[in-house]
Amino acid sequence: MPWWGICLIIFATFLIFAVLHYLGKNKHPFKRSLLSMALGVLTLFAVNLTGTFTGVTLPISLLSLLVSTIGGIPGVTLMLGLNLFF
Q1: pLDDT tens digit string along 34-78?
Q2: For the range 42-51, what are the long-range contacts, defined as Cβ-Cβ under 8 Å and sequence gap of 24 or more?
Q3: So where are the chain's domains?
Q4: pTM of the entire structure?
């Protein structure tokens, strides 16, 4: 997938989150949507940083970054659960 396609997916996700936060009557929908996307990516990196202590790691690839960006913390939790079973 070309890099502009990835950027388009991330931007569209950001706009969808912003609209959902706006409809949820949040004061700052753009800041809140950016925060939820950033928390997903930071959670993915935190899982990998603590992987030496816990033995649980997730590979950082394009797919895992997109899932963590779009899904946020629940997306990373889903990947951890799938990693546990498969």
Answers
A1: 998 999 999 999 999 999 999 999 999 999 999 999 999 999 999
A2: 43/68, 43/72, 43/73, 43/76, 44/68, 44/76, 44/79, 47/76, 47/80
A3: 3-85
A4: 0.83
Q: Are 30 and 36 in contact (CB under 8 A)?
A: no
pLDDT band at 26 (very low <50, low <70, confident <90, very high): confident
Residue whose C-alpha is closest to residue 30's, from 41, 39, 38, 22: 22
Q: What is the DSSP letter of 26?
A: -
| Tokens of residue 18, six digits | 């912003």
Residue 52 tokens, joined: 């030496």
Choose among 75, 80, 78: nearest CA to 39: 75
Which residue has 């990835």 as its token pair? 6
